[in-house]
Amino acid sequence: MLSRFVNQELVECINFIGGKWIKPAEELSHIKNPSTGLTIARTFRSNALDIAQAVKSAQAVQKVWAETSLRERAQILNQFRGWILENMELLSQTISNECGKLPREAQDGLLKGVEIIEFSMSLPASERLYKTPVSRGVTCEYRREALGIVAGITPSNFPAMVPMWMIPNALIVGNCFIWKPSEKTAMTSLLIAEGLKKAGLPDGVLSVVQGDKVTVDGLCDHEDIKAIAFVGSTPVAKEVYKRATSLGKRALTLGGAKNHIILMPDADKETAVEGILASFTGCAGQRCMAASVLLAVGEVDHIIKTLSDRAKEFQPKINMGAIITNESYIRLCNAIEKAHKEGAKVLVDGRKVTIPKEYEKGNWLNPTILDNVTAQSFAAKEELFGPILSIIRCKNLAEALAIENANPFGNAASVFTTRGDVAEYVAERAQSGMIGINVGIPVPREPFSFGGINQSKFGHGDITGESGIEFWSQRKKITSKWIQQKSNNWMS
Ligand code: NAD
């Protein structure tokens, strides 16, 4: 499989079941490199029979895997960690080829994945399950158990990092994992499956089933799959949560976002400009943590002027990657036009972009800044998922917070200020799961967990950190009583 990537041949994104590569019955579509427009892979759709095959291969090994010592499982993850680091270039180039982001951005995502593997590997050292005497001769004890066979469904924008939010934590506690990657960026899944096999993961412990809604529905409906984690857009996250839980499964589904940055007049200009620019342009704005609304409080024109000047200097492929599909690119251009018609001033127009010849067929949109956007307009409300920043002018912090908190999502919110009291005020009141103070992308580092609130997440807990371990496992409570037998004459 690796050789196809190295030789840059057309890749077939097929299933990985029981340690073997198997083509699903139905062909789905193809993947085009967002930077060049060239077709680089064919994709397939798994149906209920393919899923049943993956479940069967997991059933054959799950008990043995769960009985394998925690230390041995951690050692396999450690091998996998090493494999990722050794193959960093191939992995980041593949991610860049299929989802458009710059290779260095892909590498950042992979390193976050490595951080989570390290967290999972630390479980043998950190696991302190509780055992205590509760009355004479009686003890109570917690033991952690795997759920059995579990599944994860991942989005297009982080083909390696988001799966790494799930796979290491699910495996370390003894589950078999069935992964459905995004059909838009399925190539990376082949490399990850290969890497885990090379690391010594027994066949059947990880399966990859390719596909779309049909496959997702099949996973939700399969009665032997005990838990579903999902990351993607809010409407789908809601549907998947409903479908999985209605059938008695444990579910945690992370949805979309509309993240706000509050810019205070006392903010340090350089810190704010760098943080805001990185937030809305990183991965071409196609991140669930990207800020897309700037709540400009009071007189901050000097900061906005520098921000706009820097945004105008961006060059495709050097400062920013491409938009994932041509449909998304057209949708974003239409959004800019619509916002303009609704009265927004286009301070920086990313549609005017000079594209190098070899990338002319790619989906390129430079950073775009819209000023005087109203809180009621669609640009302020909808997740646009591109490098577009909408500025809403606010009289004071109370107005900015009211706008932030009226938005139904709750992934991230940030504030740029030099005042500790303002930072604390925002941290306490902003209705978001992850808060940034002078940080534009407030992704917590492990062991702090990742997860939003409100319409950005359905289900209890977070996807990483200890929450992740809890999600993929169950606790057994054991109460034991041992009575000393009088007949045990060997005791005295
Ligand atoms: P998406 O919702 O279109 O797809 C996500 C997954 O769901 C894919 O595997 C896809 O095949 C599947 N899917 C698509 N439509 C489906 C349907 N109708 N029924 C069942 N399954 C379906 O999302 P995307 O475009 O791949 O990713 C971008 C979205 O993901 C954005 O909204 C972004 O904010 C969100 N996201 C959220 C987080 C987070 O942590 N909250 C992280 C990354 C991405």
TrEMBL record:
GO MF annotation list: methylmalonate-semialdehyde dehydrogenase (acylating, NAD) activity
Gene3D superfamilies reported for this sequence: Aldehyde Dehydrogenase, Chain A, domain 1, Aldehyde Dehydrogenase, Chain A, domain 2
Keyword Nucleus listed: no
UniProt KW keywords: Oxidoreductase
One GO process term, biological-process aspect: thymine catabolic process
Signal peptide: none
Domain Aldehyde dehydrogenase: 21-478
InterPro entries referenced in this protein's UniProt entry, alphabetically: Ald_DH/histidinol_DH, Ald_DH_C, Ald_DH_N, Aldehyde_DH_dom, MeMal-semiAld_DH
Protein name, as recorded: Methylmalonate-semialdehyde dehydrogenase
